[in-house]
Amino acid sequence: MKNINISYLNLPAQSPSLELNLSLSEKVHRDSLKISHKFYMWDRALSSCSVNLLKKKSICDICTFKAKKGFEIFNKRNPNSELIKISKKDLLKFFKNNLSKEIKDELMLGVHSTIGSQLRLDNMDILNKKWRKIKENMYSSSVSLYNFFDKVLKTNKVNNFIIFNGRLSCARPLVCVSKSNNINYKLFDATNNGQIPMYSTNEMFHSINFEKKNALRTYVKFYKESKTIASEYMRKKLNSIKTNDKVYTKNQIKGHIDIKIRSLKKPIISIYTSSDDEYRFIGSDWAQYGLVDQIDGIFSLINSDLSKKYDFVVKMHPNQKKMHPSIKKRYAELSKHVNLLLPDNKTDTYSLINFSKLIINFCSTVGAEANYLRKPVIQIGASRFRALPVANYVSSIEDAINLIRNNKIKIMPIRASIVYFCYHGKTQFKLDSYKYIEDGVFKYGGELIKTSFFMRVSAVYDKYIQGRLRGDEVILSKLYLYIPNLIFGTTKVK
Predict the structure, then answer these.
(1) If you write DSSP's letter for every residue of 86-136 in order, what string do you get?
(2) What pLDDT was estimated at residue 477?
(3) CA-to-CA separations, 24 to 142, 306, 378, 439, in angstroms, rounded
(4) Does the residue 224 lie in any domain?
(5) Which residues, in sequence order, are CB contacts of 15 under 8 Å at separation 6+?
(6) Are 327 and 456 in a shared domain?
(7) What residues contact 244, with CB distance under 8 A and at least 6 apart?
(8) Which residues contact residue 448 at a Cβ distance below 8 angstroms, ignoring those fewer than 6 apart?
(9) 290 lies in the same domain as 392
């Protein structure tokens, strides 16, 4: 058997996943002395995936068209390559649910992670009948994907398997099967609306070790200017200027703190929540640090004896504005018992940090930012910076209460935050053939990859149906994005 590299063209309808896939595949291909490279794509084979929940033909057509077109460009630049199309009939042969419990659990995490991201939901027990059917279809597709590629990996000498993200239902099976067969897998994604590509080898992006390793590597490289980089990063955060992520504080008023908060008499413990639908289903890497229900935890905090000494303020993350109605209902109940600042509240995140005695954080980068501003921080559960000494780390609400009660809280080294900010301010990931043009517009090998206007129009209704299924109630308000995307074939997002 000859050595080969393989790539799975999942989600090609969603730029820049296709452009990133082709660019990383090209890098791997050329770094491997141009050994054969095989691309796999599905021809309407999956029962459900994250880009096409209901398996609508019009959306499948966009995926297959862009995958073929992207491969043609790749093959011109890298002739020693092959595109393999897999039909539903081909894939059905591989639905054998005889996998180990460990693998089944991993596949289900991918399914739950996909649904959680679609619905902004962290509790799969409340899914309605339609979503339970989607879940069933996603899982069956995941099983077939695992078994199909298990045969591919066992019958070929595969050097590298290139996969998008690794977290979702149409990618997690490939990570699992790579591990089972001791094959190198390379994941890719991008941050900041596609501006900054990133990739990893044999590690998930949310891996705490991945974050630590790359943070330290970047810090060492930019050691001399690390303080300046961190200072500039924090300056942008304080002034709602874009860094490597969305500006979540742009609708807040700088320096503003609600009068009801300023009027509190006791020292303030500010609790910063986060939308954890993405992190809930990562797996053991995060679960080992405790999966805490934020709302239940806050109830425990405010009902503890700490309330005699402190006033509590809960600052919801602006991104939680889009959370599932069931979670909104729970926060509405919480608001009856504590000073709750809703996602669209104008209170300045950083002014509130400075106004507080202590910060309690759930996985948000606010923890690292508060430490930089020299506030004591308690971090409950996992976070992307958990392996850096940014906060006082605990795995449960009870541990947090005891830490405060016994006055054992430290202000952690500012250097830890500098290391983390340096990493996010100076990315080390480069793909020569990938180019970000503007939000929603990307190139691979100097070329745009898009479908015909007719194909885009044909998919409008099906995309609308899927938007409604997700509970997207602001479709009409986003026409300023949808119409240009439809006309020009871009993928701009808000």
Answers:
(1) EEHHHHHTT------HHHHHHHHHHHHHHHHHHHT-S-GGG--HHHHHHHH
(2) 58
(3) 24, 52, 38, 20
(4) no
(5) 194, 440, 442, 449, 491
(6) no
(7) 191, 192, 195, 196, 424, 425, 427
(8) 441, 442, 489
(9) yes
What SS3 state is found at 435? strand
pLDDT digits (tens, 9 = 90+) for 57-110: 999 999 999 999 999 999 999 989 999 998 888 888 888 778 999 999 999 999
Beta bridge partners of 87: 43
- CB contact at 8 A, 364 and 272: yes
Tokens of 92: 């059905």
For 178, the enclosing helix (H) or strand (E) is: helix 172-180
Tell me the pTM.
0.92
- Tally of CA atoms within 13 A in the half-sphere of 57 that contains its CB: 1
Domain-embedded: residue 373: yes
Alpha-carbon span 400 to 380, nearest angstrom:
7
SS3 percent helix, strand, coil of the chain, rounded to 5, is: 45, 15, 40
pLDDT computed for residue 476 by the predictor: 58
- Which residues lie below 8 Å from residue 223, measured CB to CB, with a gap of 6+? none
Domain holding 257, by residue range, is 246-414
Structure-block tokens of residue 83 = 């595109």
* CATH number (domain holding residue 300): 3.40.50.2000
Whose structure tokens read 């006791």?
266
User: Cα angle vertex 321, ends 319, 326, to 5°?
Assistant: 120
Backbone angles phi, psi at 217, to 5 degrees: -60, -45
Question: What's the count of helices (H) and strands (E) in the chain, helices before strands?
Answer: 19, 14
Report CA 12 to chain centroid distance, whole Å.
18
Q: What are phi and psi of 157, to 5 degrees?
A: -90, 90
Six token digits for residue 287: 């679960």
